[in-house]
Amino acid sequence: MRTTPHRIPTQHPAHLQESDTPPHGNPYDELADLAGNPLDEFLYEEEPDEEQPWQPPNHRRGSRRRNRFAGLPLAAKAVVALVVLTAFLGLGDRWALLYAEHEAADKLKDSMKLSAAPEVEIEGFPFLTQAFDDKLDRVRVTVPDVAADRVSLAQVTAVAHDVTLRGGVTSFKGADIDTMDGEVLLSFEDLNRELGASQVTFTGHGGDRVVARGTLPVAGHDLKVAADARIRRSGDRGISTSIGGMRLDIGDLATYRPGTGKNEGLHLSRKSVRDIRERTDKAKALFAIPEIVSRLGVPDSAVRTALRSERKMAELTGSPEFVRSLMKVNLIDVALDHPQLLKRLGFDPALLEGLSELTRPRLASQLSLGFRLPEVPGGGDVRLRDVRVEKDGIKVSIEGAGVTFGT
Length: 407
What we know:
The chain is of the alpha+beta class and 407 residues long. It has helices at 14-17, 27-35, 38-44, 61-70, 74-112, 127-132, 188-194, 270-278, 280-287, 290-296, 300-308, 310-317, 320-328, 332-337, 339-345, 349-357, 360-366, and strands at residues 119-123, 135-148, 151-166, 174-187, 200-204, 209-218, 221-234, 238-250, 254-257, 265-268, 371-372, 381-389, 393-406. Strands 5, 6, 7, 8, 9, 10 and 11 form a 7-stranded antiparallel β-sheet that branches. Strands 1-2-3-4-13-12 form a 6-stranded antiparallel β-sheet. Strand 8 (238-250) and strand 9 form a beta hairpin. The longest helix is centred in the N-terminal third of the chain and has 39 residues, at 74-112. The radius of gyration is 48 Å and the shape is elongated. It starts with 13 loop residues before the first helix and ends with a strand.
């Protein structure tokens, strides 16, 4: 017999009987509970047990930073203030330094009559402590493009030691330099530009040697020029050059060496002598001049026989002794009296006249690299200490004492 299960009636609490939905708390009270978090305790440093009224969260980052700085200890605030003060003092020191360097550059420009103000660098920090004593430890001065005779010095760099200021920083009038040292550069690049009328370039070969190579215009002809220059001191304030090995190549016809030495003068090239051996008319024109026959050392009888017979002429000019002897003959003075010989050998007579005027001193002066240091306006002892040739130019070390500039 199936029985029906007994259903027990469900009992509801009294407060649920009035409504079918469960009660909920106030949402604003829940947000207020969430607002009371440890971040507020960090910002306001209040007691954790003290009950705080609910406040909306503060999302302004600026207020948070101000509250944190206010909470810094006094020592930290002092450190920050000291750092800020040091920064301002450093900026002030640098500003005063730049002002003093500018004033010194203007004074140097006026006193030395320079086309541009030099670069002045006052070393040492802080600057103001030196300026208050009117005494600077080291000052570096760089002066570009200083005129020195017929060339320009590419750069003059000097370091002054123990500099005494006159007039102070604010009313700077000049300075007295106890000692100084520096370096002068005579640039090959500037030399090639300034002496470029002859299209000659200079290159350093170490030690005291400078090599000049290029072309030189003579009587409408561009002749290849080559020379060696030796650089040496000239007293305490200048350098001079000793020019040697000068030669001008007239194409492949001849070589001219100015001077009166054994190997100097106008000499035929080996190609020209070979051409004379192959051309009977040129050989006859050469033997028709007694001065040349005498210098060759050929007997008159042999010359007369050669002039009558081409075979004898070929035998005479074909010997190795003839080639060497003819290349040693200086034609400069012979050809002046016999201009027809020049034309027969392929020379321009005007060129020979130009070469005769191009004496050794004149050519050497065109290739000279000498200069003298300019005078120091305010006086003092400045002299050369060392001269050396380097890849980029001629460098001269200088030293001085008791140098004064300004008023």
